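The aim of this short unit is practical: by the end, you should be able to scan a pair of folded records and say something sensible about each. We start with the first protein, listed as its amino acid sequence and then its structure tokens.
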Amino acid sequence: MTDEIPQPIPQRVLPPLSPAEERQWAMLAHLGILVNLVSGFLGPLVPLIIYMLYKDRSRYVAYQALQGLVFQMIWWIGGGLLIGAAWTITGVLSAVLIGLLCIPFACLFSLVPVVALFYGIYAGIQCNQGEDFKYWLIGDWFRATLIG
């Protein structure tokens, strides 16, 4: 009987992503917003999965994926809740004729996800072209969180 000390299992270290792979995964994280067109709400899973898979291999991909995730949570899901509330209020007030005046505002709120969709596509294109894209208002906060 020998008292052998068990050796630790070697960890497999994945190589960092190439610049082309970084651009590709960053673009896909932003274009995950297109999944919302089919599912309605599963788009945020795309940047979340990309973040979880590549956060240790590329800070750039992690940064872009987190931006895409929060952007979709705010503008797509939050916008959907805002639209639902606007149309509910409009419907209830329509019973007393005041709601008819609210219809233009409810229609305006309905454009929020469409604007978010085009902004997400624009972000994906910018990342694919090698640009360091950052969303308005949330980009600087994420950069400080990940880098600083």
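Turning to the second protein, read its sequence before its tokens, just as you did above.
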Amino acid sequence: MILAAVAILIGVGTGIYLWHMPAKKVENSIGIDVSAGTLAKEYATNEKTADAKYLNKAIKVTGIISEIDKNQDGGLMVILQTDDPMAGVQCALRDTGAAPVKGQSIVVKGFCSGNGITGVSLTDCIITK
């Protein structure tokens, strides 16, 4: 009975700690340097290996803006061109005041959320250059 009560208290304590833990920010992470073309190619070649290397990690992606759009939440979305015109690197920008320009070469830092139908996705992105 005492052992069960201790286990419950540990579980509740862990849950409270995790709930109140501050969110991870991309600014506080170093980031893995990669070009948009290389990132897309690695995901196209072997998604499982690419996930092990990039998924949920901060990455700094260098590329040329092929499109600027709004995502489903109304946030700014920058798409970096790759060799495959149907699959770019989609970067959901956190900064709503950013003013990227189509054709501009930029470096975007964000968390990789994996590969989808339209390419690799990054979230919580900031423009670093």
